[in-house]
Amino acid sequence: MATVMFRRFVRLCRYLQDPCHVARFQQLCGVRGTFSRRSGATEKERERDLSPNGACVERCDADRDPDTDIRKCVKHHDPVNGQNKDVPASRTGTEEKLDSRGRVKPLRKNSLTDDVGQEFIIENRFLFYLFTMGTELGNEMFFIVFFPFLMWNVDACVSRQVIVVWVWVLFFGQTTKDLVRWTRPASPPVVKVEVFYNFEYSMPSVHAMTGTSVPFCLFMLTYNRWEYPFLFGLSVAICWSFLVCISRIYMGMHSVLEVITGFLYSLLILAGFLPVLDDIDTFYLSASMAPALILLLHVGLSMLAFSLDSWSTSRGDTAQALATGAGGALASHLNHWLSLQIDPPASSLPLKMPSITGAPLGRTLLRLLIGVAVLLAVRAIMKAIAIPLACQLFGVPSNDVRKARQNPRVELTYRFLVYGTVAFCCVFLVPLFFLCLNLS
C-alpha cells in the first residue's frame, strides 16, 4: 500500500514538474514565444548543457525526438516555428501577425550573463503588468521600500520580527535550491518572460516562499496587536501570496511543482519560527552577547551558503538577506540600549489603526520619500566603495567587477558592507534624521 502511494506521489510530482503546464498557462494568459530554430549543433551539445552555476543539465527530449510530448507542446505554443515548414508564410499569415502585434523583451537582463532574453508576444497587457507587479513583490526594490515603510510608519516591533522570518526563509530556500539543483523549466516550450534569475536553480521557488511567509507572518503578528477585521487581513495575505506564486509560473521561472513546494515550505518554516519570534526579538534587543552572536551567526550562515556549490547569484542573494538581517538586528540593539525606540506597552494593545487624513498621510509619505532616498544614496555610495575595498583587502584584480565578485570573499564582503550598512541606516540613522527634521 505504501509503495503504491509513493509511486502515485512520484507520478504526481513528475506531472506537476512538466514544463508544458507552464507553457499552457502562459498561452492562456496571452504570452506567445518567438523561438528560433536551433542551428547545427554538435551531438555532444545536444546531449547536455553546462549551466553557469555548475549544473550539468540534460536537454529536454524535444531536441532528440520530434514526436515527444514536449516537441508537440513546442509546436503548439510557438507561433513562428510551430507551423509546417512546407507551408508558405503568406498562407499562414504568421509574419504579418507578428509584425502587427509587436514584440516585447524581458524587462531586466540576466544578472549573470547580461543576456537580454528572447522576444515574446504579449496579447494581454493587463495580465502582463499584473504579474510583473506580482513578481516584483519578491524582488530587492520592493523590500527596500516595504520594510522601511513598516519600520518608520507602522510598527517597528512587527517589522523586526517579519525581517527575521524573511531572512531565514531566504536562507533555507536558497540553500535548498543549491542542494536539490533542479534547473529552470525548459525553453521551449516555456517562454522566458523574465531572465534575471534564469541561471539560478529553481527548486523550490524562493519568490513563492517570501511571497507567502511575509504576508502571512505580517497578518499573524498584527491581528491581535492591531484592530482590523480578520477577513480583511486574511484576504490581503492570500491575495498577496497567490499573486506572487502565479506570477512565477507566468514568468516561466518555475514549474507548478516548484511553486507549490515553495508555498508549503514557507508555511513549515513560518510554523517553526512564529512561537519563538518574541524570544528572538527580546534576545536581539537586550542580551549583552547579542551583537557578537548576531555577527557570528549571519556571517557563518553566509559562508555555509557559499560552500554549497560553485558561484551563482543565489549565493549573493543569500548573503544579502543575512547582511540585511544582521545590520537591522545590530541597529535595533543599539536603539534599545540608547532608549531611542521604545515599543508600546502591552497595556496599550490592541493598537488602533491611524486615521488616513491630510496631515498624518503627508508626514507618512514624507518620511517614506526622504527615508528611501537616503537609503538609496547610502546603497549607491557603499556599492562604489565596497568592491574596490574588498578587492584590495583580498588581492583580487578590480578591473573586471563581474569576475571579481565571483570570488566568495569579495562577494561576501561586498554584500555585508553594502546591505548591512543600508539596514543599519534604516533602523538607526534614518529615524534619528527624522527626529532632527521633526518628522517622528
UniProtKB/TrEMBL annotation:
The protein's matches in SMART domains, at most eight in alphabetical order, are given as:
acidPPc
**Annotated region described as Disordered, given as residue ranges:** 75-100
The regions listed as transmembrane in this protein's record are: 126-151, 163-180, 228-249, 256-277, 283-306, 416-437
The UniProt keyword set, sorted, is: Membrane, Transmembrane, Transmembrane helix
Q: Name one GO molecular function term.
A: sphingosine-1-phosphate phosphatase activity
Transmembrane helix in keyword set: yes
Quick one: a GO biological-process term for this protein? sphingosine metabolic process
Q: Name one GO cellular component term.
A: endoplasmic reticulum membrane
Keyword hit for DNA damage:
no
- One Pfam family recorded for the sequence: PAP2
Q: Give the InterPro entries listed for this entry.
A: PAP2/HPO, PAP2/HPO_sf
In this chain the Phosphatidic acid phosphatase type 2/haloperoxidase domain maps to 160-274
Domain of life the protein comes from: Eukaryota
- PANTHER family per UniProt: SI:CH211-212G7.6, SPHINGOSINE-1-PHOSPHATE PHOSPHOHYDROLASE
Q: What is this protein called?
A: Sphingosine-1-phosphate phosphatase 1
Species of origin: Ictalurus punctatus (Channel catfish)
Q: What is the lineage of its organism?
A: Eukaryota, Metazoa, Chordata, Craniata, Vertebrata
